[in-house]
Amino acid sequence: MDAEALKTFQEAPHIRLGSHPTARNAAFSVSSLPSGSVIASITSFSTCLLPTEKGKRCDGCHTLPSDGLNLRRCSGCASFWYCGTACQNHAWRAHHRKLCKSFNAFAVSTAYQALSAHDQVDAQLLSQMLVEPSAWNPSIRRNDPNEPHAVFLDLLKGPRGEDLELPLCLPKGVLAADTLPLAKELYSRFGNNNFVLHSHLNTYAHGVFPLASRSFNHSCVPNAACKYVIKPSEPVMMQIVALQDIALGEEVTIPYLDPALPYQIRREALEANYGFACQCQLCAFQQAVEPVDPPPERGSSTLRDLEASLRALSLGSNIQALRVPKTPGSFEGVSLALRPIFHESYLPALSELFSKTSHEGPYLDAVESGFTLLALYALVYPPNYPQIGMHALELAKTIWNLICTAGADLPARETDVLEAQARRFLTVSADILENFGPEGDEGGPLEEIETLKAALSV
Do 353 and 369 form a contact (C-beta atoms < 8 A)? Predict the structure, then answer.
């Protein structure tokens, strides 16, 4: 397929594919897109739940059980759950009728049990895609650039090539001699093309979205991000959402991994899984300042001064008047003295400290470490990145826990100050997460924001 043919993709009408100096192609906007716009809505080709989610969600549409909606087991293998006959019938026709009888023996096999949880999911995904080998025959596929089999085979192979390492769950009639080459051909595109699905930023499944893989390049400073829409009895849908205003003709990029990961980890992961070295604004900056010194010891006055400078640079020193950067690239303003924040040990240690203190206390320490972590996120992530909004919500909840735990022991003036801080964090969170829009399961952070706002107004 050439770039001209790919302009006709129905699920991504706001982009066209064009040439790129280093990548195969790039997705360019065909109009000006305001922040929060849904650039593409792409139906999943195949999905599979993580083992920890089995029995907790519908294996078809990924819906959680609720009042009036109970999951029902497949009466054949008792290993798949469905929210109703629509999802069960769809899965049966698509692949389950050929996997049902052999799945339980496959799931307890030594080869399958030896796999990591994520490789187990990929083994199931690959098996689902192989149950109808004839569907991959080019002679019977329509000459249609939207046809998912054609789009998937048009994807570039990953660095690991065609080395098949996964066991397959297939009935005897399917696992023929000519199926193994097809399995290798498909699996060679898994590592660099498949997606990790999340609900409220919590990973729960893997999925194949060939059009998204074909269209969007990676950047650690992306102007768009993926979210997943879950509706009962419907296939999961990926939506590509604009994080900021995108100009006519501007390339639309998404992150293939967490941009806040340390530079060396990002570089190694991208080279190992995707076969390229990222040259984005963040990577170019961090490469130029490498190596960075490790941060001062936790608890030292030197580290306290460094983190105060980080907060002032990124957000301002006053919580109630904090401002989140509105343009990408704030990290380029980091001075030499502040560069230890980019050391590979700093973010994990700070995240662990906030997680521990926000659950166990002291809550005042949690607020300080959480504010510092928010400053780091706002500096590294592009504007409106959902993780910034999620963390601002966690900070507001931490302050609320501090207020509730202290109770009458907290002077009224201090309570007023803390409540004002919590409201400010909620405002930051709402601005970002409303731009991203509802995603994943029902409820979630947008409803939590409204609940906490109501509690603070009492």
Answer: yes
Distance CA 430, CA 417 (A): 20
The beta strands (E) that lie in 20-77 are given as 26-29, 38-43, 46-49, 72-73
Pair of tokens at residue 159: 């660095």
Can you give the pTM of this predicted structure?
0.92
Angstrom distance (rounded) from CA 182 to CA 403: 60
The DSSP bridge pattern shows strands 38-43 and 195-199 to be unpaired
pLDDT, tens only, 413-456: 889 999 999 999 999 999 999 999 999 999 999 999 999 999 99
329 or 9, greater pLDDT: 329
Cβ 160 vs Cβ 190: under 8 Å: no
The 10 Å CB-count burial string (b at 16+, else e) for 171-205 is: eeebbeeeeeebbeebbbbbbbbbbbbbbbeeebb
- Please answer whether residues 255 and 218 qualify as being in contact, where contact means their C-beta atoms are separated by less than 8 angstroms: yes
User: Is residue 429 classed exposed, middle or buried when 0-12, 13-18 and 19+ CB atoms within 10 A define those classes?
Assistant: buried
Task: Provide the 3-class DSSP secondary structure of residue 103.
Answer: helix
Residues 340-391 pLDDT 10s: 999 999 999 999 999 999 999 899 999 999 999 999 999 999 999 999 999 9
DSSP per position, 106-122: HHTSHHHHTS-HHHHHH
In 166-307, the DSSP E strands lie at 195-199, 202-208, 217-218, 224-229, 237-242, 253-254
Cα 453 to Cα 77, 367, 449, distances in angstroms: 46, 18, 6
What are the beta bridge partners of residue 298? none
Contact of 252 with 15, CB cutoff 8 Å: yes
